[in-house]
Design goal:
Peroxisomal Thiolase, Chain A, domain 1; 2 domains; alpha/beta; globular; about 325 residues; binds oxa(dethia)-CoA; single chain
């Protein structure tokens, strides 16, 4: 079985910044409330005509350039997203087209905010079995298109973005040390987009009124599960890797709320300086969150060759997971 070697990362972020002050003009909220309850100060919002595949392709080109690879050297493109450009073709096929590659494996992974960590496990399988040698994994979401801009309980939380990671097969030890994943579909109703799928199709206008294609969330419930499950996933992935929190150079938790990040870091018992936080700048970018954070941490020199990093994610489904990796 082949192991995984990490080559390079990249980010694709929209230019438009939406600040808390901007949000105060849209809904009854305040910078003070948003900062105190979430830690978010601003987020990026996709521009007109900019969709998930556009942000994805931008992140991919940067990662390819840093890896010193041409797109035609990829064997597979996997996009983790819950906001695809279309129900089909997959966003991965659109990215393939944008990169100008004629033939690769290409498909999407749907696990909402946990999608990138789920994607790591999927790509690990592709590489281990020899189905693909060099793989582009993207985490990307454009949740602003599925936001109810009259609901102050959700519209302040999310941002758009994409992050890319290129991996290749190695005969040496794998740099993906472990992945721990889980889900609880029984609690799926506390965070969902009710309309727009096959149950309540938008093609029927009366359905769109009763079941709008926008995020509906029971915030307090989601918060409780996010803390519990992220702690569980973190400890489980560390145990599978045969490591302890003390071995980590950096913990990169899902960036949904600063209070969730702080609670997880405290329980996993990692000092503040080894916990990555960028929620103030980007809000919750769903599947893009952990990979954009890793890309930023690498650019800032907070992760270097040989360092151990853990990514932890939690999202709709409910889904959650964590991965321990050694940066190549
Ligand atoms: O990727 C995973 C998905 N998401 C998450 O992990 C998010 C998890 N949940 C959360 O982060 C928090 O629950 C929220 C930030 C969404 C909400 O914070 P909270 O402390 O749980 O507030 P709450 O929903 O209990 O609301 C408290 C009060 C309410 O007013 P009343 O009923 O006490 O008068 C809300 O109406 O705060 C009010 N409120 C706001 N006030 C100003 C809710 N949203 C806002 C707002 N601005 N944006």
């Amino acid at each position: 079985m082949k192991g995984v070697r990490f080559l390079a990362t990249g980010s694709g972020l929209p230019a438009k910044v939406l600040t808390n002050a901007d949000l105060c003009k849209i809904v009854d909220t305040s910078d003070e409330w948003i900062t105190e309850r979430t830690g978010i100060k601003e987020r990026r919002i996709a521009g007109p005509g900019e969709a998930t595949s556009d942000l994805s392709a931008r992140a991919a080109r940067i990662a390819l350039d840093r890896a010193g690879l041409r797109a035609d050297q990829l064997d597979a493109i996997v996009v983790a997203t819950c906001t695809p450009d279309h129900l089909f073709p997959s966003t991965a096929c659109l990215v393939q087209k944008a990169l100008g590659v004629p033939h690769t494996i290409a498909f999407d992974v749907s696990a909402a905010c946990s999608g990138f960590v789920y994607g790591l496990a999927v790509v690990n399988g592709l590489i281990a079995t020899g189905a693909a040698k060099t793989v582009l994994l993207i985490g990307a979401d454009t949740l602003s298109r599925f936001t109810d801009w009259t609901d102050r309980g959700t519209c302040v939380l999310f941002g758009d973005g994409a992050g890319a990671l290129i991996m290749t097969a190695t005969d040496g030890p794998s740099d993906l040390l472990s992945v721990a994943l889980s889900a609880d579909g029984g609690k799926g109703d506390i965070l969902k987009i009710p309309g727009g799928g096959s149950r309540h199709p938008l093609a029927k206008p009366e359905e769109a009124v009763s079941f709008p294609p926008v995020i509906k969330m029971e915030g307090k419930e989601v918060f409780k599960h996010a803390v519990t499950r992220m702690i569980e996933a973190s400890l489980s992935a560390l145990e599978r890797a045969g490591r302890t929190p003390g071995d980590l150079t950096l913990l990169i938790p899902h960036q949904a709320n600063l209070r969730i990040i702080d609670a997880v870091a405290k329980r996993v018992n990692i000092p503040d300086e080894r916990v990555f936080r960028n929620v103030s700048k980007f809000g919750n970018m769903s599947a893009a969150t952990t990979i954009v954070a890793l890309d930023q941490a690498l650019s800032e020199g907070r992760v270097k060759s040989g360092d151990l990093v853990e990514l932890i994610a939690f999202g709709a489904g409910l889904t959650w997971g964590a991965a321990v990796l050694r940066w190549s």
